[in-house]
């Protein structure tokens, strides 16, 4: 049950994973493949489903908290200065919520792919995304090469 407690310190040490057990997502132990275990074996599918499900649960709780918070605070300040601060705060919270919503959608999509057997393969070129990368980014839909290419293109467009 310590899994949930560790949630805030998520994604510690994403880089420099050189054979060591470094990456933990929400306190999950990195998956240890058995020798000769095939990619996206039932065990791996189960592993990533667990990660995605607890991540989603965490996010949904957060969204709930934000909603409650917004409702509680609405219209409590008469002072215009306070109101301005409050509005900024609201805007920030709404943005956070928006980001969380998008993430929840991505997680749902990943869970769907887990069910259809598409999970873990690059959307663009079809190669295996790799366990290690998925441990750090369970919703990744691109392999590291396609992702890098994508980012370069994005930068050029700006
Ligand atoms: Zn790719």
Explained architecture:
- By secondary structure, the chain is mainly α.
- The protein has 5 helices and no strands.
- The chain has helices spanning 2-5, 42-73, 80-116, 131-136, 144-157.
- Helix 2 packs antiparallel against helix 3 (80-116).
- The longest helix is centred in the middle third of the chain and has 37 residues, at 80-116.
- The chain is elongated, with a radius of gyration of 19 Å.
- The protein binds zinc ion (ZN).
- Residues 122, 124-125, 127, 142-143, 145-146 line the site of zinc ion.
**N-to-C terminal Cα separation, in Å?**
45 Å
The profile of the biggest β sheet is: none
What's the total count of β strands? Answer: 0
Could you give the order of the helices and strands? HHHHH
Cα shape: elongated
Oligomer state of the chains in this structure: single chain
Ligand inventory = zinc ion
Low-confidence runs (pLDDT<50, min 5 residues)? 1-23
Question: What do the pLDDT scores average to?
Answer: 82
C-alpha Rg, in Å? 19 Å
Strand content: under 5%
- Helix percent band: 55-70%
Give a quick summary of the entry.
With 158 residues, the chain is mostly helical. The chain has helices spanning 2-5, 42-73, 80-116, 131-136, 144-157. It is 59% helix and 0% strand.
Q: Characteristics of this structure?
A:
158 residues, mainly alpha, binds zinc ion
What layout of secondary structure does this protein have?
Elements: H1 2-5, H2 42-73, H3 80-116, H4 131-136, H5 144-157
Helix pairs in contact: 2-3
The structure holds zinc ion.
